[in-house]
Amino acid sequence: MVHVVDNRTAITGTVLAVEGHPRLRGFCLVTLRLEKSEPVEDARDLLTSRRGQEILLSVRSRMLGSARPGTVLSCLAKSTVDGDMCVPGPTGEDNVELREA
Question: Among 39, 40, 70, 75, which residue's CB has the most CB atoms within a 10 Å radius?
Fold first, then answer.
């Protein structure tokens, strides 16, 4: 059995592509160039080592709005056995921020 430690990282990057998620209903799969990352207090940081690389990130479709290639995306993210994904903040709020580059 694979076990992933509790982890969270605040990330920012440029969206390179957005497509429907092949396995998770209500999610999109975002190809993101990871440009910034910051550890989150009381959580392991499993994403900073991939700064500068392209990552595949699962994001709830409703949180993406009109995101398209070139949009800058920031969120709280974690690594899971199914891949990396944006997750709600500590009080359950959506935390995806989008801005045009």
Answer: 75
Closest by CA to 19, choosing from 54, 68, 84, 72, is 68
Print the SS3 string covering 32-75. EEEEEEEECCCCECCCHHHCCCEEEEEEEHHHCCCCCCCEEEEE
In a domain, 1, yes or no: no
**Neighbouring C-alpha atoms within 13 Å toward the C-beta of 43:** 20
Domain containing residue 79: CATH number? 2.40.50
Q: With 60 as the cut, is the pLDDT of residue 1 above it?
A: no
Confidence of residue 4 (pLDDT cuts 50, 70, 90): low
Domain that holds residue 34: 9-88
Domain total of the chain? 1
Torsion sign (Cα): 46, 51, 55, 57: positive
| pLDDT (tens digit per residue) in 76-90 | 999 988 899 999 877
